[in-house]
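Q: Two folds, back to back.
A: First:
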Amino acid sequence: MKKIIQFFKESYAELKKVTWPSRDEVASSTKVVLISVVLIALALGIVDFLIFKGIDLIF
């Protein structure tokens, strides 16, 4: 039981050392991720559409 308590104490001490991002940094990173996901989804959608049309022409 002592090891478990020690683990949580050490974990808490390590979390105090973490430099947490500000609200603005999180918002900015979130925007980058969302825009990237949308662009990649569009690109894959176009590729999928072109492959489907190409297969449709062959068969």
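A: Second:
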Amino acid sequence: MKPPLNPESNQQDLFRASFEQILNPEHPLIRLGERIDWRRFEAAFEGCYAAEIGVPAKATRLMVGLHYLKHAFGESDESLLDRWVENPYWQCFCGFELIQSFSK
């Protein structure tokens, strides 16, 4: 038998908690993500995307962040995505505020 849900509970739902609430702000990837000028990458890659052609673009911070993580941690494309899903610090570094998941 399940315990009754208490709607007045102060306990946060882990999957709705923001990274700001659950991650260590002193973690090296959090600190690095705050120091990078992401707008500079957006400006540099702006001309590489066309709104009329192909699928919608992903966020520049996500793409640059994934490339950095891949090379910094010696990951393949497949292992990078497996680790990214399991690692909230990697997701936060790539610009997300909540836990993300995806299906292959």
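Q: And?
A: The first helix runs from residue 19 to 22.
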